[in-house]
Amino acid sequence: MAVTTFFWFESEAEQAAARYVELVPRSRVTDVTRNPDGSAFVVALELDGQSVTFMNGGPGHPQTDAASIQVTVDTQDEVDRLWDALVEGGAPGECGWLVDRYGMHWQVVPTPLLDLMSGTDSAKTAAVGTALRTMSKLDLKVLRDAYDNA
Fold first, then answer.
1. Which of 11, 43, 105, 121 has the fewest C-beta atoms under 10 angstroms from its C-beta?
2. What are the helix (H) ranges across the chain?
């Protein structure tokens, strides 16, 4: 048995896969099934070891924020690098979310946020949540300060 996340693109699955493989370490395209005209139909890839499949299925099934790719990274530098690259040609969202130029929705989350949000001090975790809701790209220093100063 294998479980794979599957995303429908109108026509840019191969371009999106190439971009994501470039941006996410330990990623690769594993297979491309082509249409008779040579264009990509199905693109299989691994993003940091996670199997993902993209299909060029034509119009009628636009991406929504109901499904996204979440990437957790260790440092603010990694947040900045990945966020800035993905949002280029796309649009920022709230609380670490963005939509990229291909219509894919992403969450770029610093790993330390998970600890800040799951602490046992409810006043501190609430302060982090309040700070988080004011952000587009997440700022780990501001989130840590909210936790420490609550």
1. 121
2. 13-23, 76-87, 111-117, 122-132, 140-148
